[in-house]
Amino acid sequence: MNAQIPRQLLRRQLLVGGKRRLAGDVSRGFSSSVRQTQQQTVPPKIPRDAPATTHFGFETVAEALKEQKVGAVFSSVASSYDTMNDLMSLGIHRLWKDHFVRNLNPGRNPLTSPPSSEQGWNILDIAGGTGDIAFRMLDHASTINNDAHTRVTVADINVDMLAEGKKRALQSPYARTPRLKFVEANAEKLDMIPDSSIDLYTVAFGIRNFTHKDAAIREAYRVLKPGGVFACLEFSKVNNPLFDAVYKRWSFSAIPLIGQLVASDRDSYQYLVESIEKFPSQTEFRDMIRKAGFLVPGQGWEDLTGGIAAIHKGVKPAK
Ligand SMILES: C[S@@+](CC[C@H](N)C(=O)[O-])C[C@H]1O[C@@H](n2cnc3c(N)ncnc32)[C@H](O)[C@@H]1O
Questions:
Q1: pLDDT at 48
Q2: Based on the domain organization, do 154 and 302 belong to the same domain?
Q3: In angstroms, what is the span from residue 81 Cα to ligand 1's centroid?
């Protein structure tokens, strides 16, 4: 209970106060440099040490601040995350996740796979949060491929999301087995994962929150075995303009409102819809995957529900 109080305060500072504080800092910085420029009457110079910026939803923030602000969002939504997902997507996220996993077909089926010294797949579910993808992967490997060896490491930067995942794992057959592991990690720097050790890297609705998406994709490439697969399920760009208008109206009006009514947290859900808008298009994201060295099959992605979400895949070339 007590641990909640500082977290709530931190969240409020980062989500609300942060906007004002950052705006204040920036404008203070500008006004002092303007004053200096006027006094010295020399042409204004762009400061060489100006901090790099990125977006946090529609806000521009210093790169160093984004991780904290994203952390505050997910700490705030962790306990209501699964319920809110169902409400916001009208349950459709479950169908997308089922399709994502079925299509990847995790696990080594002893009847159809060539004999191998390795047992099962080693799967890394990045930004795995409350474990939605991991549980589906393990269920699929066990029930469809009769594979009781495939294992999933759920890695997430946020301890509150991981705690919800661990709680959910207790209701599954995988709790306290070597098949399921939870690790606190930043997708951009996976030092604890050896090179070429992973068969399948998944990231679902996580990558749009990363500060340096390109660094995370490079890390995916590093940790995957040759022939290993990078698979990303993420919100994307709707293809039909009419459907897009309806979808945007729903997401920008209903989602923050549901967040306010159900989770008493409008700001976090406002960020979530803004972050979807800022995420690259299907082709831009496909090109980022290619740039990291992956082979991209076909056009590189599959649209789901008219492009509300998309699955992108890349294969690390076999040497
Ligand atoms: C929208 S949730 C998705 C959770 C889960 N994959 C799902 O599909 O339900 C996004 C997750 O990304 C995590 N995340 C954000 N930035 C991260 C980073 N740099 N490294 C690892 N995880 C990150 C958040 O903590 C959060 O748990």
A1: 66
A2: yes
A3: 11
